[in-house]
């Protein structure tokens, strides 16, 4: 091999770009991972020789399908459904379904690619996948959502299964949607099986799964601050979303003594310097997850400050936790956070920080935890749900929570150990990418060219 590792990595990134020119989020995710793999590719030439990275950036299978349904006015609507089955080297494809107008193939591929590394980091036997549709659940009735889910599953069911591919929720897919999807799968396949996770507690779901991404983020964050001999006690935290992830993150952060002062959506943000807790948190919990209502309703209900048209990254805080969606925190936001004294940033959403933001944090010495490590508690608990389904039993709340906490601590340790071993101590981004990559790459080597 003549090319240097650096040139080789650039050639893989360039090839991904020229093969699918429009898939910007996918290119961003590939670049972020590939560039941190230099030390491991240097030390393990067999990964290059066997084209592991080239294979990892190419999905094993992509399914794109029509989702026709009839709305409440009797009008036929047509959406586009996706399932990207990215990598099954260490287990069945696993990853959420996203229903949002921003869904396209590039977004699905970036999420599926990230999921491969995230799932490997959990140490549970799960490959990576992602799916969804460009369906906007906002303003849709229950009946419309049900018909949409049934139509979506009528095609998807032939591509999934408890040992093949196990979807779950993501943005726009919560308990209600998983219920309708599961009902339709069961009807068509004539099989009651653990084909989805995030199920209702009465029909195969796991305790703590709804809370897991938010709780797991708080557990990971406490490990990060502990490396500076700090705790979350008395810390001020800015977050962006108020869905499943945001609300349960607030709950656990409050338990650990911190104060969360913002939530928001695409229209603006709410600032509550006293911290969101008690009645306010109870009001907030179902606001998006059940009611799909705007963030401003929260400000109006409690007479809190509403800042129109801005992101929450302008407020003074010790810690920022983007909990909403990709690229929601850019370089300008990052500079503002640094100027306002922010010391830690952990990504509860998938790739919420732009590369410019991540570089700004690195330069300023802000400790930064990447989504694939920080938010892995959600899919880890999905893995625990799969285990319980296979065993046909259910664990207690405490049992699942103890396992979740143990997994988050282990992921934190693994990231730091890999970063140390490969010469970039304290770099969670490189540590997460390297540890996830090595696990999947070794499985791929063992299994031959497939
Ligand atoms: O991004 C994610 O990890 C998820 N949406 C959860 C996936 C899962 O299978 O629980």
What's the SSE blueprint?
Layout: H1 5-19, H2 24-35, H3 38-43, H4 45-49, H5 52-56, E1 61-70, E2 76-87, E3 93-99, H6 105-121, E4 128-133, H7 142-156, E5 165-168, H8 175-189, H9 209-226, E6 236-239, H10 244-255, E7 259-265, E8 268-271, H11 278-289, H12 296-302, E9 305-308, E10 319-321, H13 331-339, E11 344-346, H14 355-364, E12 367-369, H15 371-374, H16 376-391, H17 397-421, H18 428-447
Parallel strand pairs: 3-4, 3-5, 6-7, 6-10, 10-11, 11-12
Antiparallel strand pairs: 1-2, 2-4, 7-8, 8-9
Helix pairs in contact: 1-2, 2-6, 6-18, 7-8, 9-10, 9-16, 9-17, 10-11, 13-14, 16-17, 17-18
Residues 94-96, 118, 168, 170, 197, 350, 378-379, 382 line the site of (2Z)-2-iminopentanedioic acid.
What does this structure look like?
It contains 18 helices and twelve strands. With 450 residues, it is α/β, with parallel strands linked by helices. The strands form two sheets. Strands 9-8-7-6-10-11-12 form a seven-stranded mixed sheet, with helices on both faces. Strands 1-2-4-3-5 form a five-stranded mixed sheet, sandwiched between helices. A hairpin with a 2-residue loop joins strand 7 (259-265) and strand 8. Helix 1 packs antiparallel against helix 2, helix 10 runs antiparallel to helix 11 (278-289) and helix 16 (376-391) packs across helix 17 (397-421). The relative contact order is 0.13. The mean pLDDT is 97. The site of (2Z)-2-iminopentanedioic acid (2IT) has 11 residues, from strand 3 and helix 16.
């Amino acid at each position: 091999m003549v090319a240097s590792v650096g040139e080789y990595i650039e050639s893989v990134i360039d090839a991904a770009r020229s093969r699918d020119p429009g898939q910007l989020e996918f290119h961003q995710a590939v670049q972020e991972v590939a560039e941190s793999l230099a030390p491991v590719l240097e030390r393990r030439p067999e990964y290059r020789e066997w084209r592991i990275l080239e294979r990892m950036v190419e999905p094993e299978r992509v399914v794109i399908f029509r989702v026709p349904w009839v709305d409440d006015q009797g009008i036929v609507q047509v959406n586009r459904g996706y399932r990207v089955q990215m990598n099954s080297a260490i287990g069945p494809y696993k990853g959420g379904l996203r229903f949002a107008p921003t869904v396209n193939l590039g977004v699905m591929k970036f999420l599926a690619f990230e999921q491969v590394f995230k799932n490997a980091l959990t140490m549970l036997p799960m490959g990576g996948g992602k799916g969804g549709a460009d369906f906007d659940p906002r303003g849709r009735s229950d009946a419309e959502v049900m018909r949409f889910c049934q139509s979506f599953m009528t095609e998807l069911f032939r591509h999934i299964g408890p040992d093949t591919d196990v979807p779950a929720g993501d943005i726009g897919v919560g308990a209600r949607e998983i219920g309708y999807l599961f009902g339709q799968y069961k009807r068509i396949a004539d099989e009651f099986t653990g084909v989805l996770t995030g199920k209702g507690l009465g029909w195969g779901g796991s305790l703590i799964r709804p809370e897991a991404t938010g709780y797991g983020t708080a557990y990971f964050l406490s490990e990060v601050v502990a490396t500076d001999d700090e705790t979350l006690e008395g810390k001020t935290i800015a977050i962006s979303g108020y869905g499943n992830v945001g609300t349960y993150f607030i709950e656990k952060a409050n338990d650990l003594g911190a104060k969360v002062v913002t939530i928001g959506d695409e229209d603006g943000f709410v600032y509550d310097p006293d911290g969101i807790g008690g009645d306010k948190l109870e009001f907030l919990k179902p606001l998006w997850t059940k009611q799909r209502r705007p963030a401003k309703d929260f400000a109006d209900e409690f007479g809190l400050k509403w800042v129109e048209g801005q992101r929450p990254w302008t407020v003074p805080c010790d810690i920022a936790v983007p909990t909403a969606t990709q690229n929601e925190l850019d370089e300008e936001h990052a500079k503002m956070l640094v100027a306002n004294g922010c010391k830690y940033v952990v990504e509860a959403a998938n790739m919420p920080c732009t590369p410019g933001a991540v570089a700004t944090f690195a330069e300023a010495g802000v400790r930064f935890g990447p989504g694939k490590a920080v938010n892995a508690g959600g899919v880890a608990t999905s893995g625990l749900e799969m285990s319980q389904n296979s065993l046909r039993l259910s664990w207690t709340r405490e049992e699942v929570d103890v396992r979740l906490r143990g997994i988050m601590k282990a992921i934190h340790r693994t990231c730091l150990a890999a970063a140390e071993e490969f010469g970039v101590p304290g770099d969670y981004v490189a540590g997460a990418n390297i540890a996830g990559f090595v696990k999947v790459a070794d499985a791929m080597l063992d299994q031959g060219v497939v």
